[in-house]
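Example S7 (structure tokens).
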């Protein structure tokens, strides 16, 4: 229904829409060189005189062919994230939306209507994603600007006060708000570079979902349903923690968006891809209902009412600046939508072709079996007469020959016994070469051979699948497959096994599923062979030992299950990936997890609390070298911040000198004083070289500062995971207060005991 082109290229994932004048939808897109393009009826609002913004230059109108005026905002630094929305309570805040702009070192809320900054905040952790909305039970603050950065989450109100703060496991790559728990409030979905989707209810993590790649995009669909996209080309939909479907492409999803394209009251999932493809899918089945193609990669997808008639249009922007808007199709014309895009006919043809292929293969199998049976009958007929004559002559030596011939003939067929089953088992193999592994054994219940096994598993193999097919000389009724899990995560192994008689050309496919326990990477060892970890986390546990034993049996691969009836539990393990030791000790009222790895201890505490249903859990912890690491980190951060301030001051002084030299050179030119003109330009050249060198030093300093802040935030996040519920929240908040106060002793105490 609407198509135009923006004057500049668009940065991917930096597209939003807002009512900056309080009435009309305006499209905002980030462009290279720190510029933002505004397209729509409200784009010209910022051109009014009297703007007080010190960082945003006055918007300049740029004509776009066949479109309304496009306004350019110069932000002065590269844009890394973009969002729009009203902050605060709707009853007390102004009607117009604010434009939220993130960069590598700051977060700006810009009032387009008045050409002024609503607030500007330094962001040492950087800004990689922004979402605007009301979070959970945050009362009295209204809608927040939720900002994700370097392992941190910050929520700003309309005045720029950080009323929400938390940490996450890695750099934040995407954010969304969704009613995940179905409570009527919003939970914060956080996708990060450690392949995790974390769900925050206020500042508490209520769910963690492990994926196979960086979570590049998230969006809420309806109720507890949300969509996600990964950097490896995967797109899927979850309903709470249950995955409804997923698909994988060789291209990368750039944007996912929920929009009711066919007016049936249920939104479709719109996905924009790096090759310019657009597709709309049924959110519950993944079936394609609409598709389109752009000549270049998609940059973003939004819904905007450009015609001001109350109807939202599906608006898609490409990186080349092309903008297309689509009308939702009335319900009675839904079939027309499918016919127009060719999706319905294409899917029907594909389905028919697949059915045809399956029928042809089945027919071929019947023909081969019939040929084998006919050959067997002919062989039996040829041997029946000599056998009868030999029997009449009193000879009894022909029976074995008949059986052998019959067996040879039957081996050429693909038939297997009707009671054939495929069984699987998991065990730890510490003697496996070249490295210890988890051994997956696949075996049949009779003498039929396993020709090949295909294993599908997330996060275990490169490409999520593995095929094992031994040579014909080594075929047998069992097959061992080594697995090398690298992360502590429960994984479902989906197996397809090709089974048939030895020498057969066709095989029966058996499908089965086996679950790999969460901590399968740890192998049980004897107490006398295990090292004693120096680090530990200790907590009181008012649970029966039998339940703790059940948790151990469900999460570790054990040769013999642990029995919680015989007194204290003492289990020793060693990591097959790193060789680190782990000890689990528990008695009637307390438990100790012995490990030198703080991250592993947090994962074990989180898994145990979730299994036992513990809402609150306090703990004490001690890890070797933690105090020295904290001191080194805090000292480095202080040094980098001081160096950054010094470099910024030097660059500001040099910028003032540049202005003076330019004025002096211009005066000399007007006076014809070419000696001083030459000297001024020489000084400008030297000063420019110094500025370039200072910028390189500042960039290196910023990178080192970001890495140090990330390490500190990860320590705080791991300290929180050593507890559960309100004790976890208290530990994270106290750690942040200690960092703000530069109180290293208090920070170490909080990590150890959970409180200041």
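Recovered sequence:
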């Amino acid at each position: 229904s609407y198509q135009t082109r923006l004057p500049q290229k668009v940065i991917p994932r930096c597209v939003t829409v807002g009512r900056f004048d309080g009435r009309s939808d305006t499209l905002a897109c980030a462009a290279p060189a720190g510029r933002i393009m505004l397209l729509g009826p409200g784009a010209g609002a910022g051109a009014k005189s009297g703007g007080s913004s010190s960082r945003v230059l006055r918007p300049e109108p740029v004509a776009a062919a066949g479109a309304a005026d496009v306004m350019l905002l110069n932000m002065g630094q590269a844009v890394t994230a973009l969002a729009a929305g009203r902050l605060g309570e709707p009853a007390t805040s102004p009607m117009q939306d604010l434009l939220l702009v993130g960069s590598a070192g700051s977060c700006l809320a810009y009032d387009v209507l008045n050409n002024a900054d609503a607030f500007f905040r330094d962001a040492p952790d950087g800004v990689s994603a922004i979402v605007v909305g009301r979070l959970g039970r945050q009362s009295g603050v209204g809608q927040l600007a939720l900002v994700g950065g370097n392992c941190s989450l910050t929520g700003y109100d309309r005045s720029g006060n950080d009323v929400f703060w938390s940490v996450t496991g890695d750099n934040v790559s995407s954010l969304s708000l969704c009613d995940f728990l179905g409570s009527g409030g919003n939970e914060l979905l956080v996708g990060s570079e450690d392949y995790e989707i974390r769900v925050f209810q206020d500042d508490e993590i209520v769910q963690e979902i492990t994926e196979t790649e960086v979570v590049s995009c998230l969006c809420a669909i309806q109720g507890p349903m949300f969509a996600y996209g990964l950097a490896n080309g995967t797109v899927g939909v979850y309903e709470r923690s249950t995955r409804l479907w997923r698909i994988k492409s060789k291209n990368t999803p750039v944007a996912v968006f929920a929009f009711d394209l066919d007016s049936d009251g249920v939104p479709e999932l719109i996905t924009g891809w790096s090759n310019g493809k657009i597709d709309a899918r049924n959110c519950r089945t993944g079936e394609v209902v609409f598709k389109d193609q752009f000549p270049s990669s998609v940059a973003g997808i939004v819904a905007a009412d450009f015609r001001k008639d109350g109807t939202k249009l599906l608006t898609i922007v490409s990186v080349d600046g092309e903008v297309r808007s689509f009308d939702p199709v009335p319900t009675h014309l839904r079939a027309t939508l499918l016919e127009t895009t060719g999706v319905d006919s294409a899917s029907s043809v594909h389905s028919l072709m697949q059915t045809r292929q399956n029928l042809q293969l089945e027919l071929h199998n019947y023909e081969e079996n019939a040929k084998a049976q006919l050959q067997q009958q002919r062989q039996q007929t040829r041997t029946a007469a000599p056998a009868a004559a030999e029997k009449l002559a009193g000879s009894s030596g022909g029976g074995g020959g008949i059986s052998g011939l019959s067996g040879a003939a039957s081996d050429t067929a693909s038939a297997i016994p009707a009671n054939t089953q495929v069984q699987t088992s998991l065990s730890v193999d510490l003697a496996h070469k070249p490295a210890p592994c988890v051994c997956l054994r696949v075996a049949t219940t009779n003498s039929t051979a396993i020709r090949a096994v295909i294993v599908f598993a997330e996060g275990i193999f490169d490409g999520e699948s593995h095929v094992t097919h031994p040579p014909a000389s080594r075929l047998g009724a069992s097959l061992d497959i080594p697995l090398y899990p690298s992360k502590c995560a429960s994984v479902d192994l989906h197996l397809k096994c090709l089974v048939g008689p030895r020498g057969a050309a066709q095989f029966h496919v058996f499908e089965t599923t086996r679950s790999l326990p969460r901590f399968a990477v740890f192998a049980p060892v004897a107490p006398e062979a295990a090292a004693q970890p120096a680090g530990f986390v200790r907590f009181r546990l008012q649970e029966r030992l039998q339940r703790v034993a059940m948790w151990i049996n469900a999460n570790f691969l054990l040769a013999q299950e642990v029995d919680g009836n015989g007194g204290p539990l003492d289990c020793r393990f060693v990591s097959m990936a790193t060789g680190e030791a782990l000890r689990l000790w528990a008695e009637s009222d307390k438990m100790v997890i012995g490990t030198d790895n703080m991250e592993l201890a947090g994962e074990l505490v989180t898994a145990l609390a979730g299994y036992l249903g513990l809402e609150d859990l306090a703990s004490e912890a001690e890890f070797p070298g933690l105090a020295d690491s904290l001191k080194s980190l805090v000292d480095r951060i202080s040094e980098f911040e001081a160096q950054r301030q010094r470099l910024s001051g030097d660059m500001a002084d040099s910028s003032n000198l540049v202005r003076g030299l330019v004025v002096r050179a211009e005066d000399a030119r007007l006076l014809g004083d070419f000696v001083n003109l030459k000297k001024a330009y020489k000084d400008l050249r030297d000063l420019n070289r110094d500025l370039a060198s200072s910028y390189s030093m500042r960039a290196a300093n910023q990178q080192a500062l970001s890495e140090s802040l990330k390490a500190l935030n990860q320590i705080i996040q791991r300290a929180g995971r050593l507890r559960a519920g309100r004790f976890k929240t208290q530990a994270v908040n106290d750690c942040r207060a200690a960092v703000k106060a530069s109180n290293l002793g208090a920070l170490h105490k909080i990590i150890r005991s959970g409180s200041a």
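Notes on this example. Residues 626-753 form one domain.
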